[in-house]
Each structure stands twice: as structure tokens, then as C-alpha cells.
Amino acid sequence: MKKYFLTDEWKVIEDGFDKSYNRVTESIMSLGNGHMGLRGNFVEKYSGDSLAGTYLAGIYYPDKTVVGWWKNGYPEYFAKIANSANFIGIDLKIDGVTIDLAEVKFRDFKRVLNMKEATLSKSLVVELPDNEIKIEAVRFLDQVNKELALIKYKLTPLKKSVQVELTPYLNGNVKNEDANYGEFFWQGIACTAKDSLDVLTMKTKKSEFEVSTAMQYQLNKKAQVTPKQAENYLARKISLTAAKGEEIILTKYIAVCTSRDYPQSEVPEQAEAKVKAAVKQGYTKLFAEHKQAWDLIWQESDIKISGDPAAQQGIRFNIFQLNQTYTGHDPRLNIGPKGFTGEKYGGLTYWDTEAYCLPFYLATHAEKVARNLLLYRYHHLEKAKENAAKLGLKGALYPMVTINGEECHNEWEITFEEIHRNGAIAHAIKDYVDYTGDKEYLVKYGLPVLIEISRFWADRAHFNQYKDKYMILGVTGPNEYENNVNNNWYTNRIAVWTLNYTLTTLKNLKNNNSKHYQKLLTELTINPQELELWSEIAEKMYYPYLKEYSIYAQQDGYLDKEQKTTADLKQADLPLHRNWSWDKILRSPFIKQADVMQGIYYFKSDFNQADIARHYDFYEPRTVHESSLSPCIYSILAAELGREDKAYQLYLRTARLDLDNYNHDTDDGLHITSMAGTWLAIVRGFAGYEVKAGLPTFRPFLPQAWTDFEFKLNFRGRRIKVKVDSTQSHFDLEAGDPLKIKVYQHQYELSTAENLSIKNK
Amino acid sequence: MKKYFLTDEWKVIEDGFDKSYNRVTESIMSLGNGHMGLRGNFVEKYSGDSLAGTYLAGIYYPDKTVVGWWKNGYPEYFAKIANSANFIGIDLKIDGVTIDLAEVKFRDFKRVLNMKEATLSKSLVVELPDNEIKIEAVRFLDQVNKELALIKYKLTPLKKSVQVELTPYLNGNVKNEDANYGEFFWQGIACTAKDSLDVLTMKTKKSEFEVSTAMQYQLNKKAQVTPKQAENYLARKISLTAAKGEEIILTKYIAVCTSRDYPQSEVPEQAEAKVKAAVKQGYTKLFAEHKQAWDLIWQESDIKISGDPAAQQGIRFNIFQLNQTYTGHDPRLNIGPKGFTGEKYGGLTYWDTEAYCLPFYLATHAEKVARNLLLYRYHHLEKAKENAAKLGLKGALYPMVTINGEECHNEWEITFEEIHRNGAIAHAIKDYVDYTGDKEYLVKYGLPVLIEISRFWADRAHFNQYKDKYMILGVTGPNEYENNVNNNWYTNRIAVWTLNYTLTTLKNLKNNNSKHYQKLLTELTINPQELELWSEIAEKMYYPYLKEYSIYAQQDGYLDKEQKTTADLKQADLPLHRNWSWDKILRSPFIKQADVMQGIYYFKSDFNQADIARHYDFYEPRTVHESSLSPCIYSILAAELGREDKAYQLYLRTARLDLDNYNHDTDDGLHITSMAGTWLAIVRGFAGYEVKAGLPTFRPFLPQAWTDFEFKLNFRGRRIKVKVDSTQSHFDLEAGDPLKIKVYQHQYELSTAENLSIKNK
Fold first, then answer.
1. Fewest beta carbons less than 10 Å away: which of A85, A395, A459, B734?
2. Going by DSSP bridges, is the β-strand pair B695-698/B739-743 parallel, antiparallel, or unpaired?
3. pLDDT by residue (tens digit) across B414-442?
4. Where in chain B is the domain with CATH 1.50.10.10?
């Protein structure tokens, strides 16, 4: 596959401009700082194909929903992250002619995403009939002062002097491309122009989020300035003459404040104050702090790969985007599948967060970051209970897709039936507690969630008198290429796990602190019969089984399908979801993403190597990995089985998914949550890292294509550096108290005083 | 239940006006003549809640579709019968004030649907501060000259003379209520006013059907007339003075011609010519012919019930609406679930036609009427093949919902999976051939359809190596409260039936006319291996079975559901589709409409009484009959089992479905296709009428609530009158050659010379 972007270990470089690829490049070149995000759009006018995108965390519009046929229980709206006021724009006129980058001739074009510094820069030379203008622009979204965005825009006439008109602007007339009825999500509140400062205030309709965007600029030369104003639009027209070779530098400071963070009446003045303070501090100082913050992020979460620059670029890109999307500073936020890089999926939260992203944040950030991801669900518990009640069920059903705790998705087979998401949300509590040892969280915030999820499972299962078993009918498992199946093994298994974990947690609490236990029972109106029922369901759960293969069946009737493997598929069939009708997909044996194997991944300790191998050998050949969340799970399990080449091959399927536009859909935005999957494949897979019984354990190997790889782990106050080379694995405690770790099942003591090197197996 | 309409054997009478019930009344009072239909709207201005509806057979707009999530294979559009130019309107001003029936005071209001004459009339006295105006209006859609509509409008001042302004108009500015994006489906082509004649020509967008509506009027008094014109609007303002007691009579003649029937360029002149001819003939003559045509219809299709006027009104209403909706004059037309009475379901064709309506038309109309219903599908064979190909399958898959042969529905579980519809379409061929003996149709038009449907079944089934059986996975059966199930017994059974019937037909052809047979094999590229495969599939089809009950299972896994019956439901649960979420419905055992029992109804001769009873006793208590197509099937089977009371109870559930607004949804339009179900319940159920081996057979009984009932049957050139009273059944051959019939399994000879009376069992 031809690579569009140049390979560089810290940069993504577009060298020369391909119009037809622009939407992909815009996605790739996205910037974000957890508070806001921008696609890599040009600041200048660009009349070509483009998705201009400015997104603010948590600012959404409840878009009127669209369904083929309304069904009782469907949500009324689908929340969409609102594409917000364009604040990067700077219109440029040279000698009275507007520069439109889709029309004008230029050379030496470069657009560079610098991942180390989290900047996007662009340079080119515009070729005019009688002149050449060099343009260099760089921008960043401040990682320290998250409400700030800065743009430095340089312009130099190369052949002769020119009349320049630069018009930095704020434009609130922005529509979501993904709006069901083409509605405009915003209403303008105020356009305020004072002295050199502009403040545009807009409010989302219905959801009523108020957003003020303030702008000031600096120019390295005196110029004539005319304020401009129109509906939801503020600008400053700056006119000047630039001599040949003279460098004109415009610095645009932007502050974006929202009523999520301030009382509504204060939002405009906050934005004004922030932008003024920014100008006062100046670009250089702000950038230095921003860069320093990113240095710290990289210090904790970087993975270094030697011997394979493309792999290095790929993993850094993924880690970079994860860190741009979610910083953990606000428990009301979460991680959308597209982050701030596009509008698909409405910018909302899926179970991806718990199942794929949480381990990344646990290992590479302060504990509070992962804790905030968990608290997000804790805070939505009441809404999850309402959601279950809407379906006529007890307990809590977390939504499949949400921004504020309410369900947004509206396909019955997903919304109502893909209930295994509840299991991942419960299991994340265990992951967090096992990793951090934070038992207090478990009791205070974990248990209320676990109990309501258990209630849901208990009510959703029913007793089958003919088989003397409990069953869960009518579900969609992680493999969404099956809908409305009975007894999806993964769902049944994770339901039972939830019940058992909740029961064990309660029992431990009873043994350790019976007073608190009694209080809890009263508070949560738990009675002993309820706990007995949970225990009975857990014991008598039915699991579909394939005698012929001595493995669990994905669901009842799986073996009734015509048994084929991916080897039977033609290239023209792939991806199935584009080439086959839905019914053909559903009745085929092909699996979209790890399903039984997702369960084996979660509950690996319940299976021996032979068990895992039997399941793997049956299901992997039937899996088409048409979810970007699939290969990492198989990669980790292949690594577990010592199938190193297979593990590496599977890792490759998503390692550069967006950078190489592997699925031809990066124009829609990046696959943010699946980026965590490649981190998992390396750290959990290649290094075999897991926390077992409170001990970090490793089973490392080095993929043949690499010289070595290295990463860091946060673990209960320590920072451990792990480096795997072709012969040895090195463990270096960079910070924190000594601790025990296990490597290939042997236990070692690790301290800052002494490095540990273990020969690879 | 309080009845809103007065009971009358030939009329539906609204005595006094209830605004809040107006939409229901408008549905009930609909008129149609197969070419066009009108809801029972007022001619005068009515600013209250109303669905003004004028629909022309076959004139549709391909409305942009709406889906929750696009799936490969979904149709691009959903055809909607376009709500067309309002031609009934007559604005009325009295002394300069517009009469708005939603605002003005009136008394002695009556709206009467006369089913015998197929007219809608209305009378009332408008009470003005200083006067009273009597209004009487009557309209009909001409059953002979199907492009004509006539309205007679009478007005009499009762207290003193008044200035009257009558404005008959044509208004093309009509929108469908059911438009996905609020689009206007029409574009105006021409407004032509000549002398006393107006022609409005409109064209549907995209589908480009041109429709000309021509209007002329007559008035029984000289008046001042001013033509009026606006966009898509033509009118004549008629001003006059009416003396106290003076009867002013306005007769409005309308002709509606469409480019479905004439070359586009001729449409306006055709409408003009038709309306001129109508005026020439005059109201009285046209009405007399219209009435005569309806007399003939009633002579063939009436059911008389003595001793129960409400039942009499109910069945006549149903027969009336069926005859209004489809007359069989045009094989390009079919029967929409709402006919011309509303916009729900887009006015399209479902499998209801073949499964429920065909027997009615076979027994009560000339053979060509049923034949045209079959030809409709024959003409769509190529599109059905394209539809199968879209799903990656061989043969033909007829659409679930269509107007022109292309699929319109867009829920995967229906569109792609409710494939049993193919079976009903195949079976209708057998029904027609068995009834009429028209073997020529079978070979010429039937076989090509049967073969392509067989090819579809053969490709859709697959061989299961583990069970040594063929299976059909991923279907939705007639019971739409199950989606995406495996091995729906009904589907598997009707698939096998199709294969066998096709094979038998081919074999008979081979034996009788081997030359034609050979030609056919070549034409349809059938090879012997293909026939062998069909035969193997038919032999080795898998049928789910419940050993515990010695009955066929609705589908695999049905008994895994929590087994409850309708006795376990609370009133607040019903109807389930309004009160339960879809997942709860799906995993419940409750059955929307006859599914296994639909198969037993079709293939009754394969089961003995005990078999039928076992299935009935298992499935009926689990059936909620939330499709209006369900009770009739159970009623017929109850009758078959000699459970007369049950048969009658089930018949009652739909006998007056719309007249009593039983399901609270008649405001959307009438349940046209299910009306055939009540006819079936009486004729097939109570009278036990079936054609077996070419002989009409009967198993009559009289419901206890009735004194007697009587109906007529067309059968191969004969007309048989059947009357069942409390002791005997009487068979009277009114026309045609002598024939053999069977009553309670005994054979009799019937001739016009002699009546036959048989004691009831």
C-alpha cells in the first residue's frame, strides 16, 4: 500500500497536496486538548471538499431522531456533538484577490502534525502571475490553559511588495454535516466587538449550552484595521503593504468558554478575560508551557519502537490521539469513537471506553483519570435505571450510545438487545480496583453500580423449566453480525461474572465491615432472597456448547449455520458490510469482532492453554475483524498462546489503521477508541502485561520486525520502564517504592536501586 | 362499547358531529371506485382537525427513505400514494362571511355513507345570528365512468334571503401528511380556464405522473361568475341572492385523467372531454348508471345476515370498502392495506392481497379480477429477480411492500427476512387454478413465477451437515413479534410446498405436453440437476418440533421462552406493541398473528382434526391477535374443529374493526385488506366453503346470535346462493350448468332446476 504521509517517528507529514485526499488529511491532522478539538482544516478560504470541524467536549445538540419504523422504547433524540463556531479562520487577500487554496496555484506545500509538541503547521508558496507569497502557519490547542487556541500566521512576498488584507474572524454560522434534517443547531446570542477584542456568543438550541468564543490578535507591523460584523460573525479586516521579503506575522489568540464550566451569565466575560490574559502572556510563553505539558504526557505514555519507523509513527499517532481526546480532568466527559475528529457516531460514548480505553489510561496516567472514566458511569446510574425501566426491567441498563446518560441509539437490535455493554461497565470496576487497589472506590461508587447491573441481569434472565437452567434470550453480542440471538455465551458469561463479583464484594464487605454492610443493604433495599436468586442464576446459567468441537458456542444454533471460514471468502466480498446484504451477513457464520474470544480475553484465568487454543482455532478463522476493536483481542490471545507471528500480524491490522486509511473511512474521522487496541496489543500482547493478584506480570516477546520496544507503566505510585529487545526484557523502576513483579511466572523484586533483565523465552 | 355511528343495514350514519372524532369519520366515510378515492372530507372550509385526502390509484411519489442506520440492500425510496389535487372543495360565503364548519354553529347534522348506492351525503342547518341555512350535499365517484366524480350541493335560506357566494375550486397545493421530509410531491404544470371549464394539470416530481383534473358546474339559477386563479389553483366565484326558502343547487362535475392511462400530452384534453361529456349526460343519468353498477356488485358479493343488524352493517361495510378499493379493471393496480382511505403504509401492496383478499375476489367477481391480481405479480417478476439478486440470491424475491414491483420497506428484519411472502404469492397461483380450473394460466403465467420462487427457496436454504437436513435461517415469519429466527416452520413448510407444487406442475406438463415442457425447460434454463436439488430439499427439509406437545414449533428455540399465555397478561399490557419495548415483545412467547396456524390453514388437508386441535390449543392461547389479519384464520380453524362459539368470538374481533374503531387507529385510514378476513370467517369459516378437487364443499353452521345468513358464490360460470338458517343450509344454483357440490362430505348434484336443502349438523 502506498503511504500518503511521510514516515517520521514524531511527525505526520503531508508533502504536497492531494485535494481528493483532503478529508482524510483533515482527520489525521486533528488537534485536541480534552476541552476542544479541531480537524486539520486550513485557516484560509478553501472551496474544495472539506469537513470544517470545531468540536467542544460535552457541547451537544439533541438532534431529532430518524427511524425506519418507530418502536416503543426508542429514544426521542440522538445527541450530536455540535460543530461549533469556526475560530481558526483568517481570510487572505493579496492585491485585492481572495486566496482560495482550492483554486490558487502553489508549490512546496507541507502540512505537518507534530506529535511531540502537539502542533499543526503548514507551509506553502503561493504562485501568483507576477509574485510568490510564502505562507507559514502553526497552531496549537493549549494543553495547560485548555480554553485557549493559538495560531501564528506568517506571510512573506518573495518577488515584490503587495497589498495584503488579512481578516481573522469568528464565524458561528456552522452546521453539522451529520444533522438528520439539516437543522442549524445554534442560535446566535451576541456579537460583541470592543477595541481589539471580539466575543461571539452562541447557544445550542434545546440543550441550551452557551459558548463564547473570544478573539484578539497581534501583528508585527502597523496596519489599518476595520472591524466587520454580520449575523453570528465577527472579524477584523487588517490592511497593509508588505515589502518584498518582509515577514508579516499575525498571531490569533482564541478563548472558548462554555456554560458547562461557568454560570451562563459569566461565559462571555470569562472568554474575554481568558483571551486578554493569553495575549498578555504571549505566544512564546504559552507555547513553552504547552510543550512542557506534552513532554510530561509523552514521558508517561510513550511507546518506543526501534527498527521500524512506520510502527513507531503508528503507535505514537495512536497514543497522541488518545491523549488529545481525553485528559481525565472532567468526570462529565468521556471518549467518543471519533473523538474530536469527525461527526460520525455523534461524538458519543460506547462500551469501547471500558473494554478498550480504560487499561491504557490506567497504565499511563494518574489513577484519577481512570477513576473519572468510571465516575462518568456512576453519575449516570439513575438514568441507567430509567433506561431499564423504559424496557420494563429492573436495575440499570447503561445506554449503548450516550452523551449525558440517556440512550441515543435507535436500532432495536442494538439499543434494546446489545446489553452485554452492562457487563463491560461492571468489569471496568474490577479492572480499576485490581489495578489500583482502591477498595474504597469499590464500596462507595462501585457497589451501587454493580448491584443495579446485577438486578438487571437477574430480571433479564428467566428460568427455563424444560432445561432446569437460566437463559438470556433476544440479545446481540459483541459480534454485531448476529442480531437477536438466544444465549449469547459472552453475554451469559459476563452476566454471571457480574452477579458473582457483586456477591463476593458484598460478602467481603460483610466479613470486613458488617456494620457498613448492613447499612448498605438498607440503603440499596437489598434483601437476602434477592442475593439468593443471583446466586442461583449464577449457578444455573445455561451456556451453549458445541460437543463436536468441545468449545462454547457463540449462541444457540451457531452450528446450524453453513460452516465456512474466511478462506472461503473472495476479495470482492470484503468488507462484508459493504458487499453483502444484512440478512446474508446474519445467517453466515462470519464474525465481525471477538465475541466468544472477548469473553475468553476477559476471563482468561478460567481457561487453560488448550481451552484457549481450541476456541481460538475455531473462532479466529470465522472472524472477519470488520470492527477495528477486534484484531487487538485476537492478537493478545495469540500472544498468550505463543503464536508470535499471528499476534504481530493481527496487531498490524490496526497499527496504522487511520494513517494508512486502511478501511477507506478515515475521512469520517479517526478511530479513536480502537487506537487503545494497538496499545493493548503491544503492552498486553507482546509484553504480556497484566495485573494478577495485585502483581504486575509479564510474558514478553519481541516481534521479529523490531529491534526493541519500550514503554512505561504507572502502577500504584510507581513508574516502571519496560524494554524488550531481541534477547532480554529489562524492567526499570523509575519512581516509587520497591515492588514485586512476575515475569514468565517467576516473581522478582524491583526497586529503583537495581534494574532487572530477564532472558526472553 | 358505545357505537358512534347509527346502526343501519345499508348505511353508516353520523348523527350529530363530534369534532374530536372527525378523522375517524373521514376514514369511515371514504369513497372509492378503483381509479380514485376520497376521504369523507367536507366540501366547505373546515379549519378543525382533518386529513384531507384525495388519492389516485397508481399515482405515487418515491419519497426519500428514512432509516436509523443504513444497511446494504435497503431501497432508496418508499413510494407514497400522492395526496392529489382537492377537487371536492366548494367555499361558501353567506352575506360576505366564510362558512367554516369548525367554527360556525349548526344543528341537525348528518353525514351518511350509503353503501347500496355508494354515495356520501351530508345535511345540516347552519345557525346564523339572524338566519338559518339548510345545506345538503351528496357526492359519488362514478363506478362506470371511473374518471368522474360528481357533487350535488344544495343550499336553502330558511328565515330570510341572503347573499350567497359559492366558489367551487380545484386546489393542487396538497401535501401528504406522511412525507418523510415534508416535501411537496407535485409540480404545477398548467392552470387552464376556458369558458366555464377549468383544467388543473399537475405532475408528481421524480415519478412524473401527470394528472389533469377538470371541473365544470351547473347552477339552477343565473348568477354572476368570476373566474379565480392562483398557483396550482382554479376556481369560479359564483355570486347570487337566494330568497327565503329558495333551493340553490350547484352541481360540480369533475374528471380526473392521468398519464397512466393516456399519453402525457393528451391528459389535459382527455380530462376536458370527459368532464364535458359528463355535463352533457347530466347528474341524474350518470348517477342512475352508477347505482346500477353497484346493484350488480351487491348482487354478486353481498352477505345478508338476519337477526343482527350490527353484524349486517359490519360485513356490508367491509364488502363495500373492498369493492371500492379494487375493481380488477387494471392489472397494474393492487390493494393497499389502507386502500384510498389514508396515507399510512404508503398505499402499497403487501402479501395481504394473496393471503386474504384473493379468495374474496375469486368467489364474488368475474375470474379476470382475481387473474389481474395474479398478473400484477407476474408483471413484476423481473423486478423480483433483481430484488433477490440485490440480496445475493438466485430466483425471485417479491417485495414486502411495493407499488411498482420494487421493494419499499426498509427494516432489515422485514425487508430481507420476512420472505414467507414469496410463499403466499406462489400459493395464490394454486388457489386461483384450483378455483377456476384455468390450467392455461398455470402454464403460461404461473410457472415462470413458481420456478423463480423455487429457485429463491433453493438458494436461501442450505444443507446442514450435522443434522443431514436443509434449513432456512434468519427469517421473520408471519408472526412479526419474532425477528431473525431460524427455521420458522411456516416458512420452511411453504417453501417446500412451493418446490413440490412447481415440480408437480412441471411433471404434469411433461406427461401431458412434453413438447411444451421441453420448450419451457429451454426458455427458463432449467436443468435436471436443479429439479433434483429442489426435490432433495423438499424431502430433507428440517421442521422444528416440540416433542413435549407433539406439535411443530414456531421456530427453533420457541420452547426456550418463558411459557405464558394471554391469560397471564394484564389489560394494561395490551396492545403489547404500544406498551412493551420491542425486545420484551421479541423474547416473550406471545404471537402477533397466526404463524404455525397460518400454515395449518393453508395445508389443512395434511392434518387430521386431532393434529389441528393440538396445534390450536397450544398456539391460540399464546396469540394476541395484534394484527387484524389474525382472528379470521383462527376463526376458520375453530369452525373446522366444530368450536362454533370460539369461531364466532374470533370473527367478532374484526367484524366491525373500523366501524367501532376497535384498535383506536381508524383515524389513519381503514384496514382494507383485513376486511377480507371477516368475509373469509363467514364464508370459509361459518359456511365451511372450500374448493376441494374441483368441487365446492361446505360445512355450514349458524352462529347462535343470528337468524340466518346468505351469500353468493361465483364458481366456474355458476352463481350459487347459499343460505344457512338455524336448521338447514340451502343451496340454490342461480346461474350456470349443473354441478356437483359436497356438504358435510356428502356429494350432491346442484342445478338451476332444483334447490338443495341439507339439515345442519
1. B734
2. parallel
3. 999 999 999 999 999 999 999 999 999 99
4. 322-686
Q: Do A579 and B410 touch (CB under 8 A)?
A: no
- CATH number of the structural domain B687-761: 2.60.420.10
Topology at the third CATH level for domain A323-543: Glycosyltransferase (1.50.10)
Q: What angle do CA A388, A394, A399 make, to 5 degrees?
A: 20
- Residue in chain A lying closest to B555 (CA): A557
pLDDT for B294-350, tens place per residue?
A: 999 999 999 999 999 999 999 999 999 999 999 999 999 999 999 999 998 877 899
Residue B575: asked if its preceding bond is cis (omega within 30°), the reply is yes
Say if A64 is an interface residue toward chain B (CB within 8 Å).
no
Kindly list the residues from chain B whose CB atom is less than 8 angstroms away from the CB atom of residue A416.
581-583
> Which residues of chain A are within 8 Å of residue B583 when distances are taken between CB atoms?
73, 391, 412, 416-417, 474
Which residues of B are less than 8 Å from A483 in CB distance? 413, 483-484
| Radius of gyration for chain B, computed over Cα atoms and rounded to the nearest angstrom | 27
Percent of chain B with pLDDT over 90: 94
What tens digit of pLDDT does each residue of B556-578 get? 999 999 999 999 999 999 999 99
The predicted pLDDT at position A34 comes to 96
First and final C-alpha spacing in chain A: 34
Nearest to A307 by CA among A720, A37, A710: A710
In order, the DSSP letters of A217-259 are EEESS--EEEEEEETTEEEEEEEEEE-TT--EEEEEEEEEEET
CB contacts < 8 A (A, B):
126
Q: Where are the alpha helices (DSSP H) in B581-713?
A: 582-587, 596-602, 609-619, 631-640, 644-655, 672-680
Residue ranges, comma separated, of all CATH 1.50.10.10 domains in chain A are 323-543
Asked if B64 is an interface residue toward chain A (Cβ–Cβ < 8 A), one would say no
Average pLDDT value for chain B = 96
A489 a known binding residue? no
Helix axes A447-460, A421-436, angle to 10 degrees: 150
Q: Judge whether residue B253 has pLDDT over 70.
A: yes
Instruction: Please tell me the distance from the alpha carbon of residue A314 to that of residue A332, in angstroms, as a whole number.
Output: 30
pLDDT, average across residues A372-394 = 97
Residue closest to A48 by CA, chosen among A96, A115, A103: A103
> Of the candidates B66, B390, B474, which has its C-beta nearest A67's C-beta?
B66
What ipTM was estimated for this complex? 0.93
Average pLDDT score, chain A: 96
Residues A122-136: tens digit of each pLDDT? 999 999 999 999 999
Domain B322-686 of CATH type 3.40.1010.10: no
- pLDDT reported for residue A347: 75
**Contact B474/A410, CB-based, under 8 Å?**
no
For the structural domain made of A11-261, what CATH number should be given?
Answer: 2.70.98.40
Cell (9 digits) for B430: 394454486
Q: Cβ–Cβ of B586/A559 closer than 8 Å?
A: no
pLDDT at B175: 97
The ranges of chain B annotated as CATH 2.70.98.40 are 11-64+77-266
Residue A575 at interface with chain B, using a CB cutoff of 8 Å: no
Q: Tell me where in chain B the CATH 2.60.420.10 domain(s) lie.
A: 687-761
Q: Categorize the per-residue pLDDT at A158 as very low, low, confident or very high, splitting at 50, 70 and 90.
A: very high
Interface test mutation site (partner B, options A63, A65, A400, A560, max chain B beta carbons within 10 A):
A560
Q: Do A483 and B486 touch (CB under 8 A)?
A: no
**Cβ atoms within 10 Å, residue A757:** 13
User: Touching check for A580 and chain B: CB below 8 Å?
Assistant: yes
Residue from the list A69, A393, A416 with its beta carbon closest to the beta carbon of B411: A69
A71 has a chain B CB within 8 A of its CB: yes
Pick one of 1.10.600.10, 1.25.40.10, 2.70.98.40, 2.10.109.10 as the CATH number of B11-64+77-266. Answer: 2.70.98.40
Distance from CA of A72 to the nearest CA of B (A): 5
